[in-house]
Amino acid sequence: MKTKVFISYAWEDAEERDQKVKRFTQWLAVYLIKWNFEVLLDVYENYPGTKLDAFMSEGVSTSRFVLCICTETYLKKMQKIVRQMIPQEATRLIVLCN
Q1: Is the pLDDT at 81 greater than 50, yes or no?
Q2: Cβ count near 8 (within 10 Å)
Q3: Residues 6+ away with beta carbon under 8 Å from 12
Q4: Nearest Cα to 67, choosing from 36, 37, 35, 96?
Q5: 16, 50, 57, 77: least buried by Cβ within 10 Å?
Q6: Residue 19's pLDDT is what?
Q7: CB-based contact 19:11 (threshold 8 Å)
Q8: What are phi and psi of 25, to 5 degrees?
Q9: Residue 85, pLDDT score
């Protein structure tokens, strides 16, 4: 059975930066697949009408590893999410990211 890896990243507001981040995550996914990992990445798994929140939640909870592509935008979004969480959830998320 392949080890499952979820790649998490933030969509960027600027088109050029967004394309760079997406190209990098796809490059990373290709190499992980070549190294026999099962990769969950939104551009591979989703289509119009997919509930992105459900995809992300399931991806994080069912994967052995979660790789976070920590751009400035990603960190800002995560800080906002962590402030809304209960302490136990925030601690688990911080441990996953460290």
Answers
A1: yes
A2: 21
A3: 18, 20, 21, 71, 73
A4: 96
A5: 16
A6: 93
A7: no
A8: -65, -35
A9: 59
Kindly list the strands in the beta sheet with 37-40, ordered across the sheet, starting from the edge strand earlier in the chain: 37-40, 3-8, 65-68
pLDDT at position 12 over 60: yes
Crossing angle between the packed helical segments 87-97 and 72-84, to the nearest 10 degrees: 150
DSSP secondary structure string for all residues of 62-73: H-SEEEE---HH
Dihedral in degrees, nearest 10, Cα atoms 83, 87, 89, 92: 110
How far is the C-alpha of 8 from the C-alpha of 23, rounded, in Å? Answer: 13
Tokens 């509930």 sit on residue: 51
pLDDT digits (tens, 9 = 90+) for 18-69: 999 999 999 999 999 999 999 999 877 766 777 777 778 888 888 998 888 8
